[in-house]
Amino acid sequence: MTIEPKPTQTSTHRGGLLSIFRPAPPAPVTLTDPAQIAAKYSRWQIRVLIFATLGYATFYLVRKNYSVVQPIIGAELGISKKGLGLILTLHGIVYGISKFLNGFLADRSNACVFMATALIASALLNVWFGFSSSLVIFVIIWMLNGWFQGMGFPPCARLLANWFPPKQLATKFSIWNSGHNIGSIGILLLGGFLVTGTFFGTQLFTPNWRLCFFVPAAIALLIAIVIWKMLPDTPPSVGLPEVAGTEAPAQKEEANEDFKFFVAKQVFANKYIWILSIANFFVYAMRYAVFDWGTTILKEAKHIEIADSKWMLAGFEVFGFAGAMLGGWFSDKFLGGRTVRACVVYMALAGVSVLLFWKIPAQSKVVTTGLLCATGFFVYGPQCLLAIACANLATKRAAASAIGLTSIFGYASTVLSGVGLGALVENFGWDAGFICIITCAIIGTALFILAWPAKAHGYQE
Fold first, then answer.
1. Interior/surface letters 150-161, b for 16+ CB within 10 angstroms, e for the rest
2. Per-residue confidence at 11, pLDDT binned at 50, 70, 90?
3. Cβ(25)–Cβ(252) under 8 Å?
4. 135 Rama class: left (phi>0) / alpha (psi -120 to 50) / beta
5. What is the Cα–Cα distance from 185 to 65, expressed in whole angstroms?
6. What is the pTM assigned to this prediction?
7. CA 20 to 30 Å from 365, out of 134, 327, 371, 403?
């Protein structure tokens, strides 16, 4: 793959520090031959997929590291499950609000600058967390981290909706969605290494949970610089035409009122986006109940230590990636891009997988791992496909805004999967916790059935 330098652009906008977030202006058009344009498009599309995926995966290194060390922090600092869950819940609520509000901003911002800035801020907050020991300070830092973490997804939605046509978006979005899994696997393995100090049974250094914040922060700062240099904004910003079938009326700068009207009509007046947003609450409740409490579930309900559980949860993510990829390909190939219909099957089978994980005794780590992997496969399907459905229904002009709306509901679920589940398990045990997770699968399946008639996209045929 040939990497082309990003064209140098000079904006006429002025607005102090905020001017750096303005969308990149159109670059001079230098190609007219269709074959050359197609070749250049292909190179940039590959570049967008690679670096958007890498960037989003890195956000997980400085967000999900807390989940890895959660039981260690609780034991070392004497913090209860309710307190540990409170950190998750307040982080998730702020994250959801941030994703929602920043969705509107990202739709009208330079995607690469927006993303890189958020990653730098998140890395610095991780350094602060690593130097802290108080529950109150932990809560404050992780809430702030939630805000900057919420700035990671919207620019990716903008990039993908601008660079790929609706009929390919499910497949390409599924590839990008692997960033969730790559980042999760990365922090599970890296975090597990840092908190144990061992590599395949060999003790290399004295373990310290604080390293789980310092090391990912350093990696995030490096990657932020890379994506700032390598990611483009829109096709016109690098001298290419807009993606066929997604052209917007030519205009130098869209008026605020025009954009607000479009979002109100395309997003807030669309009943299916609302149904999918509510369904996202239950998808994310399942996903984070398993991931955020995974090491604790395996230790307390299945009597498996962190040294082994980190690999089992990595399997959850690997199979989650496979589930999202298969769902995206299947939806484009056989469902005409109607991803909601695949979500119905995925969500129902996710509930079945959790039921079997709960009820089958933990006599075999292989069986336990297999059921955990099956859960990841079926949970990550709707987690990815739901976002694709909303992005397509909203069109590229409001894709980040629509996904921002779903995120309000998705991360409000941390009230349930965080402090709610922590309190429930603390009082009634893990049987009650599993019943709660399975109930989420049942309700989510019912909501996806309601959204079955949704169109594949919101562009005019």
1. bbbbbbbbbbbb
2. very low
3. no
4. alpha
5. 11
6. 0.76
7. 327
Two tokens, residue 371: 């059921």
Q: Which residue has the higher pLDDT, 124 or 413?
A: 124
pLDDT, one tens digit per residue, over 17-65 is 567 788 888 888 888 888 888 899 999 999 999 999 999 999 999 999 9
Cα distances from 273 to residues 117, 196, 396, in angstroms, run 29, 44, 15
Instruction: Tell me the residue type at 445.
Output: T
The 3-state secondary structure of the chain reads CCCCCCCCCCCCCCCHHHHHHCCCCCCCCCCCCHHHHHHHHHHHHHHHHHHHHHHHHHHHHCCCHHHHHHHHHHHHHCCCHHHHHHHHHHHHHHHHHHHHHHHHHHCCCCHHHHHHHHHHHHHHHHHHHHCCCCHHHHHHHHHHHHHHHCCCHHHHHHHHHHHCCHHHHHHHHHHHHHHHHHHHHHHHHHHHHHHHCEECCEECCCCCCCHHHHHHHHHHHHHHHHHHHHCCCCHHHHCCCCCCCCCCCCCCCCCHHHHHHHHHHHHHCCHHHHHHHHHHHHHHHHHHHHHHCHHHHHHHCCCCCHHHHHHHHHHHHHHHHHHHHHHHHHHHHHCCCCHHHHHHHHHHHHHHHHHHHHHCCCCCHHHHHHHHHHHHHHHHHHHHHHHHHHHHHHCCCCHHHHHHHHHHHHHHCHHHHHHHHHHHHHHHCHHHHHHHHHHHHHHHHHHHHHCCCCCCCCCCC
383 is written with which tokens? Answer: 């987690």
Read off the tokens for 349: 């089978």
